[in-house]
Amino acid sequence: MKNPHVVIVGAGLGGLAVALRLRARGFSVTLLEKNDRVGGKLNLVERDGYRFDTGPSLMTMPDVLRDLFAVAGERMEDHLTLESLEPLCRYDWPDGTHLDASSTLPRMVAELERVAPRDVAGYFRFLSYGADLYTATAETFLFNDFRDLRKLWKSITPHLLRQLPRMATTKTVADKVQEFFTSPHLQQLFNRFATYNGSSPYRAQATFCLIPYVEFGIGGWYVKGGMYRIAEALEAVARKNGVQLRTGASVAEILVANGKTGGVRLESGETIAAEVVIANADSLYTYSSLIGRENRKIFTDRKIARIEPSCSGFIVLLGTRKKFDRLAHHNIFFSRDYPKEFTDIFDRLQPAQDPTIYVCSTSRSDPEMAPPGCENLFVMVNAPATSPAFDWDDIAADYRNLIVKRLEEFGLDGLSDSVEVEEIITPKRFTGWFNAWRGSIYGLSSNSLTSAFLRPPIRARDIRGLYFAGGSTHPGGGIPLVLLSGKIAAEAVETDLKQ
Ligand SMILES: Cc1cc2nc3c(=O)[nH]c(=O)nc-3n(C[C@H](O)[C@H](O)[C@H](O)COP(=O)(O)OP(=O)(O)OC[C@H]3O[C@@H](n4cnc5c(N)ncnc54)[C@H](O)[C@@H]3O)c2cc1C
Q: Whose CA is nearest to atom 52 of ligand 1?
């Protein structure tokens, strides 16, 4: 049988990944992106000689991206230069404590001995615990669709079975971190990793302690020229390989008849017929805005309203006419009261008044990202998903001032006066820019034991021919997982068509 035509809604990383994989298997693929540029949340702002990545700043599990290039007949190294950074991240606390984290063990141990000597052994045990979790779960829960029972049985390993009792816990990330570290500084540092999938360490299940292992044990990388190079490279390969990529093409509806998809209708009125439609656009947005209510059997408005999105982000891009030598490439300035910060974000749905602040200055390791003598600061704090409680437009300027003042208190003297280029990105803007559900940046939160089961699955259960690929479906948000969702979606399409 001739491979049917596939339409993909959205050219974020998930859309690009599934497009490249299906094209490599001989499918005719149309990739539709509503914005003028591909990449979705991996995006950029360029102004007056400053280049800012506006989304991801750290790449983990690079083999996943390398594999995608290989499937498309290319070598990642011919397109991208990955750089491992030293330090991996600089952490600062309000009491003056600081720590330069490193994935080079002797350096990391030296820093731990300086800051929290009693916790050095705990660090080794914690990494080993994370490594066990990662090696036991990755094949079943990240590289495959655990909700596809045929695949589930094949991917279960003796190692996973041995780890199951440790994984079947109601303990949270914070509970577990406390078992390994006595230092409040290190507890805060390792709790922070729960935010890497948009969740709270005080609610996310302890299995997410595998995330620090991925960063410290496997490594974290920057892409020379800026993270947006990833999107540019994938776009170039997709076009070269014959993916029909259209930007400025906003989909208004996924056409469904008799429980089966038949293609899409664009906002321009044009319809494109397809037997397979893959939504890379946020899955909850897709159900609520692109699929008629009469065709939604599972993700009804009521069900969607009950699903908790991941947190969002409040971002200030600052081009400064001076350099701040106390900064590394990645920097974290911690809040005084970490539990309160997460109560504000996830329970009160309010911006934290004393937020932990992340500052990324790619120009420190990649001078071409800013004019000579200047820095391109990407300043971000975790923020609540949008809600009717308030309008971000009303508070953005004050919140920006609070954050800049806090950074000056941490020692970035003269920051405010040195700004010559500035742009604010609020959760509300994420909603409009990418149709991110309530401004979420990682899809759905993992704040409960059942979160993984609440996500719309890769294969829509209520509409034949409809699939999802991206951070709001399995296995979750973040560059490597989103790329993996593209792999899993491509496999699901192929498997289903063979039947
Ligand atoms: C500020 C920030 C920091 C982050 N930091 C990191 C990090 O350091 N490391 C990491 O690994 N991950 C990070 N992430 C997460 C990572 O960026 C995302 O998980 C990933 O990029 C999401 O990709 P996606 O393909 O799922 O979705 P998206 O990027 O949201 O792509 C969906 C695409 O669909 C398009 N679309 C939506 N609706 C329509 C429509 N109707 N018609 C046509 N097109 C449509 C959108 O415009 C978008 O291009 C960060 C994200 C943000 C925002």
A: 55
| Residue 290 CA, closest ligand 1 atom number | 41
pLDDT of residue 337: 98
DSSP state of 241: T
Q: Which residues line ligand 1 (CB under 6 A)?
A: 9-15, 32-35, 40-42, 55-58, 250-251, 280-281, 313, 315, 380, 434-436, 441-442, 470-471, 477-479, 482
Main-chain phi, psi angles of 332, to 5 degrees: -125, 130
Separation of CA 12 and ligand 1 centre (Å): 5
Distance from residue 292's CA to the centre of ligand 1 (Å): 24
Spell out the domain ranges in the chain.
5-42+225-307+446-498, 102-219, 311-434
Look up residue 93 and give its amino acid: W
Summarised one tens digit per residue, pLDDT across range 136-148 is 888 877 888 877 7
Question: Which residue's CA is minimally distant from atom 12 of ligand 1?
Answer: 478
- Distance between Cα 40 and ligand 1 center (Å): 4
Q: Tell me whether domains 5-42+225-307+446-498 and 311-434 share a fold.
A: no
One-letter amino acid identity for 110? A
pLDDT tier at 449 (50, 70, 90 boundaries)?
Answer: confident
From CA 420, how far away is CA 173, in angstroms rounded?
40
Q: Which atom of ligand 1 is nearest to the CA of 485?
A: 26
How many residues are recorded in the chain?
A: 499
Spatial distance between the Cα atoms of 192 and 221, rounded to a whole number of angstroms: 18
Structural domain 5-42+225-307+446-498, CATH architecture: 3-Layer(bba) Sandwich (3.50)
Task: Using the mean position of ligand 1's atoms as its centre, give its distance from the Cα of residue 41 in Å.
Answer: 3
For residue 357, what are its two tokens? 């602040």
Predicted local distance difference test score (pLDDT) of residue 83: 96
Residue 430's pLDDT band (boundaries 50, 70, 90)? very high
Element (H, E) at 255: strand 251-257
Instruction: State the pTM of this model.
Output: 0.96
CA angle 155, 476, 377 (to 5 degrees): 135
Question: In testing the pocket of ligand 1, which one of 8, 33, 38, 41 has its CB within 8 Å of the most ligand atoms?
Answer: 41
311-434 sits in which CATH class? alpha beta
The rounded Å distance from CA 428 to ligand 1 centre is: 15
Q: Which residues pair with 423 in a beta bridge?
A: 317
Question: In this structure, how many other beta carbons lie within 10 angstroms of the beta carbon of residue 110?
Answer: 14
pLDDT digits (tens, 9 = 90+) for 345-400: 999 999 999 999 999 999 999 999 999 999 999 999 999 999 999 999 999 999 99
Instruction: Evaluate whether 396 touches 315 at the Cβ level (below 8 Å).
Output: no
CA 85-54-439 angle, to 5 degrees, is 125
Query: What is the spatial distance between Cα 109 and Cα 121, in angstroms, rounded to a whole number?
Result: 9
